[in-house]
Amino acid sequence: MSQPIIELRHVTQKYGAQTILKNINLTLESGQFYTLLGPSGCGKTTILRTIGGFNQVTSGDVLFAGKRINDLPANRRNVNTVFQDYALFPNMTVAENVAFGLTLKKLPADEIADRVAQALKMVQLSDFGSRDITALSGGQQQRIAIARAIVMQPQVLLLDEPLSALDAKLRRAMQYELRDLQQRLGITFLFVTHDQEEALAMSDEIFVMNHGEVLQSGSPVDIYDEPINHFVADFIGESNILPGKMVADYRVSFDGHEFDCVDAGIPDHEPIEIVLRPEDLTLTDLAHAKLRVTIDTQLFRGDYYEISATDDRGHDWLIHSVRPAQDGARVGLTFQADDLHVMRLHEKEAEFDARLETYEGTENHDQA
């Protein structure tokens, strides 16, 4: 097995009395696209800055290709960062911005010119070298910031919400470009975002964070289909989450009814939570219904209708349907056994909630 390019081992970061990161352990392999995903203030940017050498850890170790780099300054780490605001120099041309780091290293002029040309070609802006930064669009500036980072030939590229300032259409286009660029370069990307769809679309592996801890890591499919707890299920996409009970292997009860499921190995009668994604619910007539609801409202989202409904027990339901429903109508819902995801209740979740006040001040230190 190859040596991981980056490892964080039991990393804790404190600012005074505030604990921003608590016992973080994560491993990044070479040539993969990783995403740190979570709400503002959860510690994503702190991890990025820790890897980049801009923060000193309170305890724990940061390793690069197996070597401890806790005390290695930022300019000696083979990583580069693309910041949220791009941090481009308005008084320089595009080419001068891209060449900035190479110039500081005092490389030969012909080598600088060649590497700048190659980097601009990578981001599809070969003809923009002589232009002023202020004349570029937001998307073009974002590409220049990436070119300035990759021209240094880092082994790891850190990206701190670089798409957040773009409009929705351009942001989606840049997701494709970033993913394609990472695959062409073959280097490790660590991307920070609070946008769930963005993380799911771009990543090989996602680290879901909250309150300074990594709650779950895995592929986008694993994270979406098998959330480990209530927070992950609620944060990743949209979910219907209901209290229930494990009746026996492959059998659960919730909302006053028993249903088949695909889960086993959980003690009989143990309290659980059930997750049903809106797209897994199908509208049907009452005679064939597994659940019965009353339609409250619906919104047309282009390729589906987003429908909100309420059942007889007062539970709210979110349904994604390709066909509309009538407000106030009484309808049935159906689903398959493998659409039900069973989550065991974890005491650790209660601990997260109890520590909320401890982390409320972190946004002053970590804006991501």
From TrEMBL:
An example Gene Ontology molecular-function term: ATP binding
InterPro entries associated with the record: AAA+_ATPase, ABC_SmlMolc_Importer, ABC_transporter-like_ATP-bd, ABC_transporter-like_CS, Mo/tungstate-bd_C_term_dom, P-loop_NTPase, Transp-assoc_OB_typ2
According to the entry, every stretch annotated as the ABC transporter domain falls at 6-236
Is the keyword Cell membrane assigned to this protein?
no
Query: What are the UniProt keywords, alphabetically?
Result: ATP-binding, Nucleotide-binding, Translocase, Transport
Which SUPFAM superfamilies did the record assign?
MOP-like, P-loop containing nucleoside triphosphate hydrolases
A single Pfam family it belongs to is TOBE_2
PANTHER family per UniProt: SPERMIDINE/PUTRESCINE IMPORT ATP-BINDING PROTEIN POTA (PTHR42781), SPERMIDINE_PUTRESCINE IMPORT ATP-BINDING PROTEIN POTA (PTHR42781:SF4)
**This chain belongs to which protein, by name?**
Spermidine/putrescine import ATP-binding protein PotA
Q: Gene that codes for this?
A: potA
